[in-house]
Specification:
29% helix
Length: 245
Amino acid sequence: MTADHPADLTIVTLLPRLLDTNGDAANARVLAQRARWAGLTARIVPVQSAADLPETVDLVVIGSGTDTDLAAARDALDTLAAPLRAWLAGGVPVLAVGTGWELLSAGLDLADGSSVDGLGLVAGRASALPARVADDLAVDAGGLRLLGFENHLRGYGGGPTALGTVSSGIGNGDGTEGVVDGTFTGTHLHGPVLARNPELADRLLRSACDARGLTLAPSAQTESVDGIAKAARNQVAVRLGLTSE
């Protein structure tokens, strides 16, 4: 992969040092590997500041962080607000998890009554739950079952469209989970979510590939890995009293 032969897909992971508490920055690795299994080339670019930004961005991943780092993460993301706004307006698929998602919203209301302003790039606001939620989360996302682990202090409201409805767990706190706004997806699902739910990964990849005129073709490797992920999801589903896939 050289300047003369650039990657088919460039995947940016924002602030992986600050926003990787639950391993969610690894979602970028899932996207890159699935692209490679499909016969494409892909590179991951960790972006800690605007100086790290590549010329071309096809997908963006933002992980979750701790509340002790909220102010630092918010300030760091604020320096990247212009490219984030451009990516969202330009239809670049963006996946944000936990606080990485919340910090793009209008703001975060904390349990002690204080609040942290968000960047206002995504509709909605994160509000305090009665207690921390830390358990398995199952979501029906338009016929696609998503499973992961939720670990958060806040719910979410006011988003344009939910990612799905909660089958087991808390999610946004109102029976829904996550938010979808154009090519933006926000979720409380950890895991990392794309490793446990490869169909969601492929949904993001296809959106990026369509924009570049590329084809995402399944391979024997993806089918094998998808079978393992499905078996893992079914184990959790049965434990939660849900039907297996």
